[in-house]
Amino acid sequence: MSSFQVCLGLKERGPLIICASRREGDYGPIVGYVFTENHLLVKTIGAKPSPDFPGSYASDPGRQYYFIVDKHIDNPYAYEPIGPLERDVFFAHAAVPGDLQWETPTNPNGLIAFVGVLLLLGVALLIYGWPLILVIVGVILFLAVRRIFRTFKSRKEKKLHNA
What we know:
This protein is an alpha+beta fold. Helix content is 36%, strand content 26%. It is elongated.
């Protein structure tokens, strides 16, 4: 629903394993991940109380937190990943290799999401923006009528001048 809700969950509407909106905490959305043989390593940015919306959180890119998720989960509904961990604690963990190439999460349905946003904006504009649409249409009509009137007026003046 928002850029703050970049979460890790299981397919087919399974439980959310890591999600900033799932519980209050210092961590925010997922910004990177790496698969190892037995684990999924996850990097998140920090979270802070939102100055614009009381009771909600905003991203804090100046801080980073890490999670270690077992790839072989027996009961995902009872599973809790290791974390959020600070950088030093994370890289000291035995499951974390020395050099990591972080992948950035992407929306697999990006085009569908984009079309959905366009439709939502169109409907919102029709519902809430009709006064604005009327003003724009009115200004366009006014300018068109004025242009037509000036064109006919100048043609009439040319005929009188040439006669």
